[in-house]
Design goal:
Helix 5 (58-81) runs parallel beside helix 8 (123-149), helix 8 packs across helix 9 (158-177) and helix 9 (158-177) runs antiparallel to helix 10. Helix content is 76%, strand content 0%. It has 202 residues and is an all-alpha fold. The chain is elongated. It has 10 helices and no strands. The longest helix has 27 residues, at 123-149. The chain has helices at residues 2-12, 16-30, 37-44, 48-55, 58-81, 87-98, 106-117, 123-149, 158-177, 185-201. It starts with a helix and ends with a helix.
Length: 202
């Protein structure tokens, strides 16, 4: 009976992406505290037990949701960065995409939760998180290298400079994502624009 029940559940289960879309929509609407396996199961027509069967744990569900969200962002990022025109404009587009829209930005909310849970994650999960970080890093390094080669930017170590820029973006973005008073998205963009112009162009 159990085996048969599993077969039925697998046959009738919604596509994996539907579950991830529903999870992200719940985070956007009600925050992480509103995302429960039971509630998500009701949205997609599955029991919490069946969700656990497919994902193994809530941690894995969150990580897969983040990977799905990042795949969408990655496609948008590559489209932005492949445009023609000054490299400085494309770096700005990268920054715009990186920085959260406002407090409780769903993507950043999810990122922060996965980061927090990674303290107890195993090496495979950490490698998957590193792969997401690595994609953002490589794209910025490539942009900086192009700007340097075209004479738009002064000569810097693109890899080291990208690491510093992303640390700056992370630090500012976390403040916005958690709703710290006194700083908003516009403030971040102004700070980062000023830093990049002083470090790369002036």
């Amino acid at each position: 009976m159990v085996a048969g029940g599993v077969r039925v559940a697998r046959k009738n289960a919604p596509p994996r992406e539907d579950v991830l879309v529903a999870a992200m929509a719940t985070i956007a609407e009600r925050g992480l505290e509103g995302l429960t396996m039971a509630g998500l199961g009701r949205q997609v027509g599955m029991s919490s037990g069946h969700l656990l069967y497919y994902f193994g744990s809530k941690d894995e569900l969150l990580l897969q949701t983040l990977e799905w969200s990042e795949a969408s962002l990655g496609a948008e990022r590559r489209a932005l960065l492949s445009r023609r025109g000054p490299v400085r404009e494309r770096v700005q587009a990268y920054v715009d995409l990186y920085v959260p829209e406002a407090a409780r930005d769903p993507h950043w909310t999810l990122w922060l939760e996965v980061w927090n849970r990674s303290q107890n994650a195993g090496p495979p999960e950490r490698e998957r998180q590193a792969a997401i970080e690595g994609a953002w890093h490589r794209d910025l390094v490539a942009l900086l290298a192009e700007g340097i080669s075209r004479g738009e930017f002064r000569a810097v170590d693109a890899d080291r400079f990208a690491a510093r820029v992303r640390a700056l973006l992370d630090g500012f973005s976390i403040q916005v994502a958690v709703g710290l008073p006194g700083i908003g998205r516009g403030d971040i963009l102004e700070h980062v624009t000023e830093f990049l112009d002083e470090a790369l162009v002036s």
